[in-house]
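We include the entry.

. . .
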Amino acid sequence: MNRIQRLQDVLIESNLAALLVTDLLNVRYLVGFTGTAGAVLVTQDEAFFITDFRYQDQAANQVQDAQIRIHQSGVYQEVQAIIADRNIKQVGIEADNLTVAQFQMVQETLSALVKTTSQIVEELRQVKDQSELDLIQKACEITDEAYQHILGFAKPGLTEIQIANELEAFLKNKGASSMSFTTIVASGARGALPHGVASEKQLAKGELVTLDFGCFYQGYASDMTRTFAIGSVDDQLRKIYDIVLEAQLRVIEHTKAGMTGREIDALARDYISEKGYGDYFGHSNGHGVGLAIHEAPAISTRSNDVMVENMVITDEPGIYLPGIGGVRIEDDLVIQKEGVHVINQSPKEFITI
C-alpha cells in the first residue's frame, strides 16, 4: 500500500471526501515532489498534484501516485475545477499550514464546505518505511564522520564559529544538502545555554564543548549531540557528564514499542533528579526525526504519544549549570518491538583532546 492509499484509508475512516495538502514536507512525503510550489488534492479514490509551469518538468520526473495538473490561475482555482467536476461537497485543509488570508481565499474560491484538519499526514509520517530508515541512517553516518573529523580539528584558540564552519563544510562535502538546524557549539560557561549557537568565543583549556548538529540527506534529517573536554576539567563537570551519560543510556536500555513519550522522558529525568540536578534539566528528552528535524512523536513530561515500531526519536538529556557549563548527549533511535536500534555510532565515553 502506497502513501496515497494509506491517506485515502484515513479519509474514508474519517468520512472526509477530500484533503488539500499544502505543507511542502507532506507533499514530498505523499508524492515525492521536492520543489517549492505545489499542492496535493487527495480524494477517497483519486489524487492530484497541482503546480505551475515552472515545475512541470520536475513534476513529471518526480511525482508518483498522483495525476499532474498545471494550473493557469492558481492552486485553489484548479482545486475548484477538480471538485466541481466530481461533485465533491467537502474538502479538508491543513489548518496548521495556512495563514488567515489563505484560509479566507480557500473559502471564497471553493464551492465545497471547507473543514479544518490537523496533523493527518504528519501522523502517517511518524512510522518510517525502510527507504526512510535507510536515508536517516545515511544522514547519521555522515554526522558520525563529521564528529570524528572535529575531534581531530578542535584545539584551544579556535572560535566556536570556526568549529561550526568546519563541521558544516565537512558535512556538505560528504553529501549533506544542508544542515538540519543551526549548528550549536557551546564551550565553557556557554555550555549552560541549551541552544548556544556558535559565537566568537575561543575554545580554552579546562572547558567542556557541546556540539549539537545534524544534516539533511536526500530530505531526511539527523540530529546528534556530543560533549567533549579541552584538557582537564574540574570534578563537577566530569560528574555531570557521567550523570547525563547514564541517563541517556537508561533510555536506550528500557525504551520499546508501546511506551508513551512521558514514560521515556521519565527514564532520564528521574535519574537526573535523583542525582540532585533535576532543576537543571529543563527541556524535553526528545522528539521525532524524519523529513523535519522536529516532528511527532514528542518525548516529554506531557506526551501521551505511544511508540510504534519504526518511529525514529532522539534521546537527549542534559544538565546546564549557569555560569559554569553544561553537558548534553544525544542519539537518534529507531523504536523496535522489544527495544531500540541506536543509529549514531559516535563514541560517548568522556573524551579529552
